[in-house]
Every structure is written in structure tokens, then in C-alpha cells.
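Lab notebook, bench 4. Continuing the backlog of folding jobs that were queued last week. Each job is logged with the same field layout so the records can be merged later without manual cleanup. Today's entry covers Dirigent protein, a 204-residue chain. Filled in by technician R.K.

JOB TYPE: sequence-to-structure
TARGET: Dirigent protein
LENGTH: 204
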Amino acid sequence: MAPSSSAKQLIAVAGAAFLLATAVAFLLAAESGRPQPVHLRLYMHDVMRGPGTTAIHLIHGVGPPHDVEPGAYFGDTAAIDDVVTEEPNASARAVGPAQGTYMLASQHEEVLAVAVTVVLTAGPYSGSTFSMAGRVRVYDDKAEAAVVGGTGRLRRPAGYLTWRMVELVVSEGYVMVELDVHMSVPPVSAAGGNWWSSLLRSIN
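JOB STATUS: finished
OUTPUT FIELD FOLLOWS
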């Protein structure tokens, strides 16, 4: 038996009401949601030689000799898979790797062009990543780079980090770098990104 016209109208009204409630919930969330601040202080451990090597040269000695850095050449490029810790100690608890590349980008200064992603495997943002890119003056007290992307709970970040070399052991090819990260992420990302649950909570 075909539904009556009044039943059809009731179904149409109920559907429209649901769509309206959904739209209102999302509009309210957009109006009230504020970016969530995220602050991380991490330490990256770069080892250029020995059994625990985490960085290797991809390009070395192709460009002209560097004006300031002995044994280095303009355009030298390294790939890294560095251990990242929460404390300034190589034996501290690891919270993930830092993976990417850096290149000696100036002929006259100790400047690196950096493109690195930190993969967090422990702590409150475990399973998330953030990516940095920029021009880093190696010996500056606090060089800045941009946070240009992220995944998981750190999706769509906006922010920056300071890059500071805190330890250098030339004989071991070891460098420890402090990453002081300041960024904000949309509230849905910070909450885990489950938009359907958020929608149901908003409607209820």
C-alpha cells in the first residue's frame, strides 16, 4: 500500500528538520571552536658516524668548498632518521624519529635548508606527526623554522619552532638540537578528528 500524501509530507518534514539540525550544529561548532594551542619541547639526536649512525650524506663535495665550514661544500645534503627524546639526553625516553633532509644552502654562512617530519610514537600525541621547513642558521641561539603540516591530532597546524644546537661533539659526529615547538590546531584535530561523534553530541 502506497504511503498517503500526509505520510510523505511528514517524512519530508522530518528529513528537512534533521538536515537543519545538522547544519546548525556545524555552524555553532564553527563559531564556538577555537584553535587549540600545542607546545612541545623535543630533542633531536643527529649521529653522523659510528654504529649508531642516524644521518648520512646524500651529496658531498659536489659544490665549491664552503667559505667558513672546514671540510664542507656548498650543496652538501644529508638524510636523517634521528632519535627524538623529551629530555636533553640521548639515553632519555624516545618519543619517535625525525625523518627528512637538510642541505648546506649558503656558500658563505652556516645555513641549512631543512625539511623534516617528526613522527610521534609516545606521549599525548602518539600516532601524530608534524613537519617543519625553513632556513636555519646553525649556530644561532634560536633559529626559527615554520611548522608546515601535520597528521593525526596535529592536522592543519599553524605555528613555528625554534631550533637550537645544545651539544656538538665533533670527534663523534654528534649533534643534539632542541626543538621548541609552538603551534595551534583546529579543535576537531585536537579532539581526535571524530566528526561523526562530535555531530551526534552536538545534536543531542
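OBSERVATION: The longest strand covers residues 36-47.
SIGNED: R.K.
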